[in-house]
Amino acid sequence: MYFKKIITFMLVTVVATTSFILPAQAASKTKAPLDIQANAAFMIEASTGKVLYNKNGDKQLGIASMTKMVTEYLLMEAIKEGKIKWDDQLPISKSAYNVSQDNTLSNVPLRQDKTYSVRELTEAMSIYSANGATIAIAEKLANGDENKYINMMDKLAEKLELGPHNFVNSTGLSYEDIRGKTTQKDKGENELTARGVAKLSRALILDYPEILDFAKVEEKSFQAGTSDEIKMENWNWMLPGLINSDKNLPVDGLKTGTTDHAGMTFAGTAEKNGMRLITVIMNAKDKKNPKDEHSGIRFVETAKMMNYGFNNYDLISKGLGNQFKVNVYKGDKLTETLTTQKEPKFVVPKNAKVETAAKMTLKEDKTNSNGELVAPVAKGTVVGKAVVAANDPFNYGYLDNSEGVTMDVITDHDIEKAGFFLRSWRVTKDGLNVAKNYVVDGAKGWFK
C-alpha cells in the first residue's frame, strides 16, 4: 500500500467556525433547483472536478458525435508526442471517401485523388463534425486498422477512467448511417455515461486547451478558393452570435451529437470570472416539439445549467496553513505540522458561510509501524496526501467520486533528527515514568 493509516482530520474554517463533515459522510437529500429536460445531465467545475449538477449521470447512453472528442484527444496526444504534425498530408481511404459523400450526414466532401492536411481535417471534424474527415484522422492514428483504432479508444477510456462505455467507431454514427460504406461489423452504437463524457471533456480541455481554438470557431470555409469549397457552420449554436447564444455565457466549446439512438446531445463549456464550467446533455427532450432535432432544446437546457452554475457558485483559493499535526519518531520535536504543497481551490455557494475539511494520510515509506513520521525530513519533501473538500449543500461530490480534491502534503521546514543525548534522555524519562507509575499503582494496592 502506498498510503497507510489515516493520521488526522483537520477542520479549516474559511468563514464559519462550526464543524463540517466530508461529503461522503453526510448525505444530503437536497437537490439543486433545476429541472433539466434530458435523459441525463451533468455539470462540473473544470479545475477541481466538483460536480454541481447530476441527473442520471451514471447511466450509459448513446453519445453520437460527442465520440469525436476521443479522436480529438488521441490526435492531440499524437501531435504532442511528435508522431503526427499539423501539416502532414493524409490520403483518403475508400471508407472515408464513401462516408464523406453522404450529404445527409455532417460532412465535407473529400477526394481520393488528393491529400488533406491534418489541420484542415481537424477543423472539419471540430467545427462541422465532418464524419469522413474524422475517419481519415482515425485511420492515420491507427495505420489504417479500424479494429486497432477501437482498441486505442478503449485504452484511452481506461486511462482517463471514463467508466462504462461501448465504442464501435470513430465518428459516433449509427450502423444504419454507415452500413456498406465502411468495414464496421458491430451494429451497436457508441455509448458512455454523462459522467464519462464530463471526464473526457475535462481531460481534453485541461490536457490540450488548444482544442478550444478549433471548437470556438463559428464559421469557416473548407478548401477555400477551390471548386470543393464548402462553408462550415458550427453545430454549437451557443457560440457568440449564433442562434442560441446567451450574452451572459461566453461559450467556447465543445461538441454536439445527434442520432436516433442518442437523441440530441451536447458537451458544452464556458469560462467566466476565472471559473470554467463543463456541462453534458444527453437525449434532450423538447416537450413542445418532441420530434424536431433542430429545436435547439439541448442548448436551452445547457444554458439553464450554466446560468445556474455561474449565478450560484464561486471558485476560491484558500491556504490551509500548517494544519496537519503529526507525531515524529526520533525527531528533534515530538510533533510537527505539515501543509499542502499548493493552495487548494474550492467551488462554494455564493454568499454562504464556507467551511473546509481535510483528511490526510502519510506515505508508507515516510513512517514507522506506528504511523509516525520518521525524522529527519528535508524541507519541501512530499510526505503524504490530503483530501480537501468544502461544504456541499447538494452532496454531488466530485467527478471521480472522491470526497474532495487530492493534494500533496509537504514539510515547509526541515524536520531534524534528535541528537544522541536528547534521544537517551527521552528513553530514560520514559523508563522513569514507567517506574513511577508502577510504584504509585503498587502503593494504591496497599490501601485497598
TrEMBL record:
Q: Which InterPro entries match?
A: Beta-lactam/transpept-like (IPR012338), Peniciliin-bd_prot_C_sf (IPR015956), Peptidase_S11 (IPR018044), Peptidase_S11_C (IPR012907), Peptidase_S11_C_sf (IPR037167), Peptidase_S11_N (IPR001967)
Binding of substrate occurs at 255
Q: Where is the active site?
A: 65, 68, 129
> A Gene Ontology biological process annotation?
cell wall organization
GO molecular function terms here?
serine-type D-Ala-D-Ala carboxypeptidase activity
One Pfam assignment: PBP5_C
> Has UniProt tagged this entry with the keyword Transferase?
no
Q: Where is the signal peptide?
A: 1-26
Q: Pathway involvement?
A: Cell wall biogenesis; peptidoglycan biosynthesis
- Reaction catalysed by this enzyme: Preferential cleavage: (Ac)2-L-Lys-D-Ala-|-D-Ala. Also transpeptidation of peptidyl-alanyl moieties that are N-acyl substituents of D-alanine
Q: Which keywords fit this entry according to its UniProt record?
A: Carboxypeptidase, Cell shape, Cell wall biogenesis/degradation, Hydrolase, Peptidoglycan synthesis, Protease, Signal
The record's SMART domains line, in alphabetical order, gives: PBP5_C (SM00936)
Q: Name the Enzyme Commission number(s) assigned to this protein.
A: 3.4.16.4
Q: Which ranges carry the Peptidase S11 D-Ala-D-Ala carboxypeptidase A C-terminal domain?
A: 310-417
- Give the family this protein belongs to, as stated in its UniProt record: Belongs to the peptidase S11 family.
Primary role: Removes C-terminal D-alanyl residues from sugar-peptide cell wall precursors.
Q: What is this protein called?
A: serine-type D-Ala-D-Ala carboxypeptidase
